[in-house]
Structures are given as structure tokens and as C-alpha cells.
Amino acid sequence: MRLINIKPDRTWTFALAVLPFLALLVAYLMGSAMRLAENPNDKLLPGFGAMAEAVKHMALQPDPRSGIYLMWNDTLSSLSLLLTALAVSTLIALVVGILIGLLPLVGATFGPVVAVASMVPPLALLPILFIIMGLGDAAKIALIVIGTALKLVRDVALRVKDLPREQIIKAQTLGASTWQIGTRVVLPQMLPRLIDAVRLELGPAWLFLIAAEAIAADAGLGYRIFLVRRYLAMDVIIPYVIWITLLAFLMDLALRLLQQKAFPWFAGARAA
Amino acid sequence: MTAIVFDKVWKEYGDHVVLERIELSIAPRSFVALVGPSGCGKTTFLRMLLGEEKPTRGQILVGGVPLKAEPGADRGVVFQRYSVFPHLTVLQNVIIGREFEESPLLGKLFGFRRREAEAEARKLLDAVGLKGHEDKYPAALSGGMQQRLALAQALNRKPKILLLDEPFGALDPGIRADIHVLIRRIWNENDLTVVMVTHDLSEAFRLGTRVIAFERPRNRPEELERYGATLDDVSVAEALSKAGASVTRDFDVWPKKVAAALPNGAAGAGAQLDLKLAPANDSQAPG
Q1: Domain A70-262 belongs to what architecture?
Q2: What pLDDT score was predicted for residue B72?
Q3: Contacts of A178 in chain B (CB under 8 A)
Q4: Residue A8: which residues within 8 A CB-CB, separation 6 or more?
Q5: B205 pLDDT above the threshold of 50
Q6: Strand, coil or helix: what is B218?
Q7: Closest chain B CA to residue A271
């Protein structure tokens, strides 16, 4: 049988998916055990016991000086920045993207500007944002918005143009105005597509958040890992990285489920 | 009664002449089939009638009034594909025309007016054989059922002119025959002028009251760009001796087909669309 025709069944699909995770885990444990056998005080590859101890310390016990639970405080701070910024980006993308894609006049006016601006490396703007907006939350939100919104705008605009011209013509023969076409034909069809685009922008959004927090912050997941880096506290950094990854993965999953539940027509329309 | 007149219409794209000096008048309630090889300009002709394209020269009159250069609610259309909205259910796809008409701001109807629009839409769906499929999304319908839906959607707005752009080109022969019956009944029972582009000559002669063939008399590569199809009723020899003429043919279909007289004069389409058709037998979903 040809390799291209050999498909794993459900059990095997699950087993094969778990395999690389297990391999990573085993490789880490072996490396950690070897280093710890040589030097029990080694900090680079801490054992699970040490990491569990650190997590307990960060998440389950209040900080002796400030009295807050640091890991939850960091998570809350980072997530509120990230979600605020993504909400702003999504809204901008929806409104501006549809206008650029649907109205030739707006497209001619703002299409080129958006195309050029989306090529500016957002991190290069971070110093400017810090100078103008100060070191607080506003600059960080602005960085994430600049870094994600422009790409989302372009994506939405392209997808509006990808709608079959037949649909737009048909709507006009049914008497629809520009406003009605925008709100009843284009907008509802853009929402599930925008979810796809936002899912792809989650990675960059976290990147910009952590970069901004690393430079200037007093709380946040990115701030914490760059802070404890000074003490080589891998027992804190590794659980934090896993926690950030898990949060990002759950956000992606939530968006995918939202797309399935809220737009039941979309899977069929995409396949057609 | 809406006659369509093409008054010396030319269509050029840059240097490329697609249609030359089209002079044509289409009588109200006729069923005109446009045939011709690919690239002969029949789709361009339809697009101009739709308002999607402007004639380069000349004008198109509908009911004596020059056509606006954009699609409007007086001309319904069914394309070969993508004619229905994938994000709306079958029922929503039909009532959306009414919603556009009656709710400029929200484009949505509520309460009593919505129930009224739904009742009207259900009657129409019943007539095109889509009863029982009201809550499905178009992706769950077969190709034939999607075209039935597209017809119902277009008719709900009661257009005077129905434009069909190879509407049955993608359907299986059996399903095509069923939908031919449907479209003839629709044409016969409504105040409707139908203009249909098709590749299929037998379909053109079976359905049409008049068949118009587009031909390009000059097909040498160096001539192709500069001469388009035209509609002059002249002999081949004469056409070739004259610059800019061609041999497009215009057939009256025999035996003559005449649409039935409407019971109450020229009431709108769909109003008396009371077809008793068997439910669609092409009801299996695709895939």
C-alpha cells in the first residue's frame, strides 16, 4: 500500500499526536536528571519538583512583600492588555477593512497607505510610543493594535474583494443600497473569516505584548520572566512559558469553537 | 409592459471591440435566448442589460427610459453560480429582497411584517419545489435546488425583466429538464421578459421565443481585436464586404410560443405565481 493511502484511525491519531509531546517531556527529564546528578544546585534544567515548588510559591501563596498572588496578578494584567488590544484591532479591521474592500473610493484613498504602513516593523515604533504615550498600559495596547490591526485590515479588505461579484450584483438586483449590502451581505460573511485572521494574529499579539512588558512594566507575564531571568530562575521561567503557551492555545481553541457555533453555515460555504 | 431596445450599442475594452453596432428590440414578455461561442460577447451583452457594464457607444432603453449604469430591482438575475447568499437560510434568502425594500436602515424585518414576508416567501418556495427546505443553508442544497432558490429569490422582488446567465449550465440533464418546466411556467404566468444566455442550442430553442446568435465574422488573429460581434441581419457576403458588419443571426422560434394572458392585466411577477409543481426530486445534498 502506498504511504499516501495509509491513514491512522482515531486511536492512532490520538496516540501519534501525543507521541512528540511525550518525547519532549522524556528528553527534558533525562537532561534534567543528568545535570542534577552532576550538580544538585544546577539551575538550568530544574526538575519537576523544583518547578512545582516555584509555581506553588508564585500562584498559591501571596507575595510576602505586596500580599498579592504574583502569577494571577501577572496573568490578569497581561490578558487585560492583550484582549483590549485585540478587541480594538478587530473592530478597526472590520470597519476599515470592509470600507476599503467594498467602496472603490475608500480603497483608492486608504488602500496604499494601509499597505505601506503595514510594512513598518511595529517593534521599531515602540520607542516612539513610549516617548509619546509614556510607559503605561496605553503604549503597550497601542503597540499590539498597530502590530495586528493593519494586517487584519488588509486581510478583511482582500476577503471582501474575494466575495463572488455575483453576490454583490444579486443584492443590487434585489434593491439593496450600499449600506444594506455592507451590513447584510458583506459584514455577516466577514465575521467568521475575521475569526480565522485573528487566530493567526494571536502569535504576533503575544509577541508584542511580551516585548513591551520586557522593556517597561511593573506586572505581567512577560515582565515576570524577564525579571527573574536575572536570577537564572528557570524554575519560574519554564512554567510561565508553558502557561503563556496554554493561554494562547486556549484562546485559539475558543475562537475556533466560536466560529463553529456562531456561524454554522461557514464550514459548508468554505467547502463549496 | 417593458420593451428593451438596444440603440446602436458598441462595447469596447480598450482596443478590443467586443460588440459592434447592436440594434435590437425585445418585445415585452418574450423569452430571448442568446447563443454563440465562448468569447463572442453574449455575456457582455447580458452584463450591459444588467447595468454592470456601460455601453461604450449607444444606449439601452428599458420601457423607453435609458438604463441606469448600475443593477437595479427592476431586473432580476440568476447566475450559473454564487447567486444565493451562503450565510442565509433558504427562507432568509427569499425574504431578504423584501427586507431591503421595506427596511432601509436595518435591512431586517420584525414582528408582523416579518411574518407577512415569510408567508409570501413560503408560497414562492412551495411553487419552486423547495417546500421543507426552508431552514437549510444553501451549501446543504444540490445545484438544482440552489438554482430554484435563486429563481425564487429573484422573483420575490417582482422584476419586470429576468436575466439568466447560463443558469442551468452546471446541472445534470434530468434536473435540467425539471427546471426547464419550472422556468417556462414562471415566464408564462408572470409579466416577465426573460433574457437567457446559454451554451446549449437545444435549450435555447426549447425555451426561447426568439434565439439570437452572436458570431464574429472576422476571426483572423489580427482582426479579432478590432472587430466585434454585431446583430445586423445581412448576408455573409455583404457583411464581409462591409467594414464593421457581421452575420449575427436572429431566429424566431417555430412553432410560435406566446405567453398566456395574465388574469388581471399586468400584475407583478410572483403575485399570481401559483404553480402546482411536484417537490424537487433533486433533493439529495451534494457530496
Answers
A1: Orthogonal Bundle (1.10)
A2: 86
A3: none
A4: A16
A5: yes
A6: coil
A7: B139
B33 and B40 Cβ atoms separated by less than 8 Å: no
* For range B18-40, the mean pLDDT: 82
Whether residue A157 contacts residue A100, with contact meaning beta carbons closer than 8 Å, is answered with yes
Q: Is B22 helix (H, G, I), strand (E, B) or coil?
A: strand
- pLDDT score of B269: 40
**Residue B264 CB contacts under 8 Å (≥ 6 apart), including other chains:** B272
Domain coordinates in residue numbering, chain A: 70-262
- Which 3 state secondary structure label does DSSP give B213? strand
Cα separation of A82 and A75, whole Å?
10
DSSP per position, A200-241: HHHHHHHHHHHHHHHHS-SSSHHHHHHHHGGGT-HHHHHHHH
Classify residue A108 by burial, with Cβ atoms within 10 Å: 0-12, 13-18, 19+: exposed
- With residue B164 as reference, give the H or E element that holds it: strand B161-165
Cα–Cα separations (whole angstroms), residue A253 to A12, A250, A268: 22, 5, 20
Q: Where are the domains of chain B?
A: 1-71+191-255
Whether B213 contacts B219, CB under 8 Å: no
- A164, A173, A188: residue with CB nearest B154: A173
Cα A248 off chain centre by: 6
- Would you say domain B1-71+191-255 falls under CATH 3.40.50.300? yes
Secondary structure letter of residue B280 according to DSSP:
P
What ipTM does this complex have?
0.81
DSSP code per residue over A41-54: T--SS--HHHHHHH
Instruction: Collect all residues of chain B within an 8 Å Cβ-Cβ radius of residue A272.
Output: 86, 139
Query: Which helix or strand (DSSP H or E) is residue A243 part of?
Result: helix A234-262
Dist CA A142 CA A150 (whole Å):
12
Q: What is the pLDDT of residues B243-264, one digit of tens each?
A: 333 445 666 666 667 777 766 5
Beta strands in B140-275 (DSSP E): 161-165, 193-197, 210-213, 229-230, 249-252
Chain B touched by A187 (CB under 8 Å): no
Q: Do A170 and B137 touch (CB under 8 A)?
A: no
What's the order of all strands across the beta sheet hosting B16-26? Answer: B65-66, B57-62, B4-13, B16-26, B229-230
A262 CB within 8 Å of a chain B CB:
no
Query: What residue has cell string 446559454?
Result: B198
CA distance A185 to chain B (A): 7
Place of cell 417546500: B131
Average confidence score pLDDT of chain A:
92
Q: Is the pLDDT of residue A145 over 90?
A: yes
Digit-coded pLDDT (tens) for B153-163? 998 888 889 99
